[in-house]
From TrEMBL, chain A:
Residues 30-380 form the Leucine-binding protein domain. SUPFAM superfamilies: Periplasmic binding protein-like I (SSF53822). PANTHER family: BLR6548 PROTEIN. Gene3D superfamilies: 3.40.50.2300. Keywords: Signal. Pfam families: Peripla_BP_6 (PF13458). This is Leucine-binding protein domain-containing protein.
TrEMBL record, chain B:
It is found in: Cell membrane. CDD domains: TM_PBP1_LivM_like (cd06581). This is Branched-chain amino acid ABC transporter permease. The keyword Metal-binding does not apply. Keywords: Cell membrane, Membrane, Transmembrane, Transmembrane helix. Its main location: membrane.
Length: 416, 357
């Protein structure tokens, strides 16, 4: 019986394979998104949740009739965080009619950037890649919707200022960071703000891969900073939590970069992590209309792209946020310029997103031709033992300082 | 069969040390050379510029590493760092307004100088100790690149390469870029083919087999180690620069990190130490196989209607790829180049070797 169905399928697939070439050319009635992701190396702590979110959101949108009556097609391929394979994936999908790409990897995003700019395609670059890409006047094809690391760090400082009663004189802020470009990026901004606000900045470089932080936290014990802002990844937070406990630093004064999720919380211990703070542009938890809808309609109908437990993860929310914005841009593109969507109309669609927050899923974004970041708003959320509790409203602080840095950096870029 | 040796007689040393003693080899090389020249008209631009072009540049780089590891016998784990030196110097030179021809030379020479520093380590240490020293140099280079924005190009550590040009002619077309890579690879191959026949090549082999025995024979092993490191670094530097100029279009530290060094060494070992054909095959296996295996598996899963999650689909090819390397090395520890040589040696006497049985 079973072999029979396999043989049937094989035959059907062979026929389809033969006809698919002509079919692909004839039926371009879907809107394609190419996800070249690192599913096997460095980014695996986040890629499964984000791909699952993108596929679920596409399923939900298609169930509701797609975008202007056209289905969304998500194509996922692994690039193992290797620039060479990322380029290969880009070149391959480009020829299959994909023009909206998402690499979700800093090295690969940087590697494909010259090609995207030259080919005038669209690169979704949320939370990765070069931060100055938010400058739409230079990086016309790149859409890093969400905060830059610079903006995120500045917003963290604004939160600390708020907590210190508006005056930062005498406040000590520690910055624990992985000692490579990801962690080093906010340092300049923090130094500028330290000068501006008069707080004392203490730098704590953590050597890669972040599993040895003993010396960092004994130094913290000696310096007694009021807050520690941490630019660490995944397991790095768990090590930090252990060291904090050992050195008597309260975890409630620890403000993490957005890369910290429920898996890390479980590794720290849900109880032990109470009070831990995290800067984010995406609301945490499942109490959001879009997630409830996905749970009911997509998972309820057994059409989920992965195990339902994985939804309980802020990275899933992050994936939904990235693709809600992308689908909104596509929707606007169809509304404004009709079908088929082209790179130009997609770009125009993105640039006409105004005050969009997908029903409270993320910080409201307004993307303009100059600001491809959408405003860069974030907020601090706190882990209360079960879920994330927002500590403030969505804010974007020190935007003038951020934009000075962005402009200064982007002015050096030219399209070759 | 195919490799007929009848009528091939060598009456002088010159004729005996010909590049291709067997006519069939020469014909095959000419055939592939023509194929390479005609490639832009034969294969689609996807395969030309995303697979063949990087493969050729990596092959040139692998040949360079083979010079120092395969010929001179010095284990080198910091090869990608040497490529980085060439790439960054060349791009900086080109940004400064120096024509690309000279920028490439500057890249090669800068690599030569830095790479020769590795040779001083090689004078004092051997074998695994040398491997560790070179690995340390790789880490030093990684650190320098991530901590000096002036070299690496700003806080995002990406340095854009100016448009590649030769003889005042901008090269931007797919075919043009391909021919640059092809030309460089052919040049390096010709150099390596001829190296085997020269006194230098024989001296390197002598140093590889036993350096103090070579010294007794009057071969200055330090000098030849230095030459091997300098020459291989030059090739590395220019290859790195061409890789950035024609494929990546920008230089970033990840492109020359420690894992890349390991990969290049893997290309040399899987291909076969001291084998030129092996360098081509090794680069192809290590560089292109992950993508190919990946596609085969997703195609297979589609055909059979299996719904493997995207994660499983991403991991199975890695396992298969690893297994493939192990199998190849178990079948022939001397590498892919030797596999071909085995077939050739068998066919040389076939069918006459059957007679005595």
């Amino acid at each position: 019986m079973k072999t029979k169905t396999y043989v049937k399928r094989l035959a059907a697939a062979a026929v389809m394979g033969l006809t698919s070439l002509s079919a692909a050319n004839a039926a371009e009635d879907t809107i394609k998104f190419g996800m070249c992701y690192d599913l096997s190396k460095s980014y695996t702590f986040v890629t499964p949740q984000i791909t699952q979110a993108a596929q679920d959101l596409a399923t939900l949108t298609n169930m509701k009739g797609g975008i202007g009556g056209h289905e969304i097609e998500i194509i996922v391929q692994d690039h193992g965080n290797e620039p060479q394979r990322g380029i290969e994936c880009y070149e391959k999908l480009k020829r299959e009619g994909v023009f909206v790409f998402d690499m979700l990897s800093t090295p690969v995003s940087i590697a494909v950037l010259p090609r995207i700019m030259k080919d005038k395609n669209i690169l979704i670059q949320s939370l990765v890649g070069r931060g100055d890409a938010a400058d739409g006047s230079v990086f016309s094809q790149i859409f890093p919707v969400g905060p830059t690391y610079w903006g995120q760090a500045a917003n963290d400082i604004a939160y600390i200022k708020e907590q210190s009663g508006g005056d930062m004189k005498g406040v000590k802020v520690g910055f624990a960071y992985l000692d490579y470009p990801f962690g080093q990026e906010p340092i300049e901004i923090l130094k500028t703000l330290a000068e501006k606000e008069g707080f004392e900045l203490l730098l704590y470089p953590v050597p890669l891969p972040g599993s040895d932080q003993a010396s960092v936290w004994t130094k913290v014990r000696r310096d007694k900073p009021d807050y520690v802002v941490a630019w660490l990844l995944a397991g790095g937070h768990v090590v930090a939590a252990k060291e904090m406990k050992r050195n008597g630093f309260p975890i409630s004064n620890y403000i993490s970069v957005n890369w910290l999720n429920e898996v890390d919380i479980a590794n720290i211990g849900a109880e032990a992590a109470i009070g831990l703070k995290r800067g984010t542009n995406v609301a945490g938890g499942q109490d959001l209309p879009i997630i409830q809808e996905i749970l009911a309609d997509v998972y309820g109908a057994g059409k989920g792209a992965g195990p339902v437990e994985k939804i309980n993860d802020v990275y899933y929310n992050t994936g939904l946020a990235i693709y809600s914005a992308a689908f909104e841009a596509a929707r606007l593109a169809v509304e404004q310029n009709g079908f088929p969507v082209t790179p130009d109309s997609m770009k125009a669609g993105y640039e006409s997103i105004v005050d969009f927050d997908a029903n409270g899923l993320f910080a409201p974004i307004t993307v303009t031709a100059d600001d491809h970041g959408g405003g860069g708003k974030t907020r601090i959320e706190m882990w209360d033992g079960k879920t994330w509790v927002p500590q403030q409203d969505w804010t974007a602080a020190y935007t003038d300082v951020i934009w000075d840095v962005v402009k200064e950096s982007s002015s050096k870029f030219t399209v070759e | 069969m195919f490799y007929g040796l009848s009528g091939v007689r060598h009456n002088s040393y010159v004729s005996d040390s010909k590049l291709f003693p067997v006519p069939a080899d020469r014909n095959a090389v000419v055939f592939f050379l023509l194929l390479g020249l005609a490639a832009p008209y034969l294969v689609s631009s996807l395969y030309l510029n995303s697979y063949i072009l990087p493969w050729l540049i990596w092959t040139a780089a692998v040949l360079g590493l083979n010079l120092v590891t395969g010929w001179a016998g010095q284990l080198h784990l910091g090869y990608a760092a040497v490529m980085a030196v060439g790439a960054y110097s060349a791009v900086h030179a080109a940004k400064f307004g120096i024509p690309w021809e000279f920028a490439l030379l500057i890249g090669g020479l800068a690599s030569s100088v830095i790479g020769s520093l590795f040779a001083f380590a090689a004078l004092r240490t051997k074998g695994l100790y040398l491997a560790l020293t070179t690995l340390a140099m790789q880490f030093v280079m990684d650190w320098v690149l991530t901590h000096s924005p002036t070299i690496a190009g700003g806080s995002h550590a990406s340095l854009q390469s100016p448009t590649f040009a030769l003889l005042g002619q901008d090269i931007t077309s797919d075919a043009g870029l391909y021919y640059v890579a092809f030309g460089w690879c052919v040049l390096v191959t010709i150099f390596m083919l001829n190296l085997r026949r020269t006194g230098l090549g024989r001296a390197l082999v002598a140093v590889r087999e036993k350096d103090f025995a070579a010294a007794i024979l009057g071969v200055n092993s330090f000098y030849y180690k230095l030459v091997a490191f300098a020459a291989s670094s030059f090739i590395a530097g220019v290859s790195g620069a061409i890789l950035v100029a024609t494929f990546y279009f920008l230089a970033a530290p990840e492109q020359f990190a420690v894992n890349v060094s390991i990969q290049v060494l893997a290309m040399v070992i899987v291909g076969g130490l001291g084998s030129i054909l092996g360098s081509y095959l090794g680069a192809a296996l290590i560089l292109l196989m992950p993508g190919v295996v990946n596609q085969l598996f997703s195609l297979g899963a589609n055909l059979l209607g299996l719904d493997l999650g995207i994660e499983t689909l991403a991991h199975i090819p890695n396992a298969a790829y690893g297994a493939l390397i192990v199998i190849f090395l178990m079948v022939e520890p001397l590498g892919l180049g030797k596999l071909y040589a085995n077939v050739r040696d068998y066919l040389m006497v076939w069918p006459f070797d059957q007679l005595k049985k």
